[in-house]
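To fix ideas, we quote verbatim a fold written out as tokens:
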Amino acid sequence: MLAISEGYYNTLKFLHVLAAITWVGGNIYAQVLGTKVIGEGDPVHLARLAKDLGDLGNRLLLPAAVSVLVFGVWLVAVSPWNFTDSWILIGLTGIGVTVVTGAFFIGPEAGRLGALAAERDPADPDIQRRIRRVVAISRIDLVVLALVVADMVFKPGG
């Protein structure tokens, strides 16, 4: 552990928590909006939403996720915690899974679907099926995020 002031540590913790709020809150909002738009049954609106959520992921959610990871690692490096503590390993694993899922599937697929819907009829069954798959995987991703938040709060094994 590095010798740091309480103010420095609390600033890092604040930035870590703020990034987590942004990341988790943005994902919750995306799920609520996705569920609403799916319920409306408007394929054009759903296709437009897929594109918008892809943009949200690239511009807000991915940077927030990376910030959570960076500030979290930084906090561990300057605190009495250890990278071998169970709750830190669980958190890092969960964050890694969601970052990879978002960066390599959800974001790119949402972008592809937005472009595809601009070229073809958004009501195309293949487009609609793929959008619903992205929403379903995003829900699983959100559950993983919620488990990571619970892990950070309850610190099992810590």
